[in-house]
Design goal:
By secondary structure, this protein is mainly α. It contains 18 helices and no strands. The longest helix is centred in the C-terminal third of the chain and has 19 residues.
């Protein structure tokens, strides 16, 4: 029974590889890997046929590799993009495709569920490299839509509109903001805008990082002190990099808290 089944698969694979396009319809619903591999090799396939195959999320890696070698895939942008976004495309196929993709299509790769992490990271690095030379308007649009890691890098700027767009980005997380605030190269304007932003300036650990950051406006840092624990403020005072005025303000705050306890 097994040999008969194998023989049938071999016969179907032979037909899938050589059949004219108008006879290929039944093969698009195949589940046998060897038949799908053969179908992906069929020279009669057009761009729309390859895209139809790539809509299937159950395609084995061998099939995706064959699709990448098809003549229509080599010359068609849409097929390259679909391959890069497919969660099962082998990384050795997906990574070289990234250099062919437009900036905002790279962003689609990053935001596609299931795409392997290393492919997403490579796409993000590609985006950041290109972002250095794109027009300001495109960069602001990118800051609104990009992944959190990309946005965090875009915040390292003095451009107020770019910072504002990045801080409003829904993919930006508290962890990203904290990492940004730890960057020595972060311009003072970015620090000031984070310190005034209603989404971020109300968060405890962001406030703590802002108090530690010497570029935070003194009055802002002063306003954050009542919400901080004594233990965290003591840790800040032990940091020799802290400006003297902030340290003195914290010590004064300690005294005020102690006096309130006694009354």
């Amino acid at each position: 029974m097994g040999m008969e089944s194998d023989d049938r698969s071999i016969q179907r694979a032979g037909k899938a590889a050589a059949a004219p396009r108008h006879l290929l319809e039944p093969f698009f619903k195949e589940t046998a890997k060897e038949v799908l591999v053969a179908l992906a090799r069929n020279p009669s396939l057009l761009e729309r046929d390859l895209l139809r195959l790539l809509e299937r999320r159950d395609l084995p890696a061998d099939v995706l590799r064959e699709i990448s070698l098809h003549k229509e895939a080599v010359r068609n942008y849409a097929v390259k993009l679909a391959l890069a976004r497919h969660p099962k495309t082998p990384r050795l196929v997906a990574l070289p495709l990234l250099k062919f993709l437009y900036l905002f299509d790279l962003l689609r790769v990053v935001q596609t569920p299931g795409v392997p992490a290393d492919v997403k990271i490579a796409a993000e690095e590609n985006i950041l490299k290109r972002a250095e030379t794109i027009p300001r308007g495109e960069k602001i649009t990118l800051a609104r839509r990009a992944s959190g890691r990309v946005v965090a890098e875009l915040l390292i700027t003095e451009d107020r509109d770019l910072i504002q767009a990045g801080l409003e980005n829904p993919f930006l997380t508290e962890a990203h903001v904290l990492k940004v605030l730890g960057r020595e190269t972060l311009p003072p304007r970015a620090v000031e805008m984070i310190a005034s932003h209603p989404r971020w300036a109300t968060r405890y650990y962001v406030r703590l990082a802002l108090i530690r950051n010497p570029a935070t406006p003194f009055q802002k840092a002063l306003g954050f002190l009542p919400d901080m624990t004594i233990a965290d403020l003591r840790d800040i005072c032990l940091d020799r990099r802290m400006p003297g005025d902030v340290r003195r303000a914290i010590e004064s705050h300690f005294s005020e808290r102690g006096a309130r306890r006694l009354t």
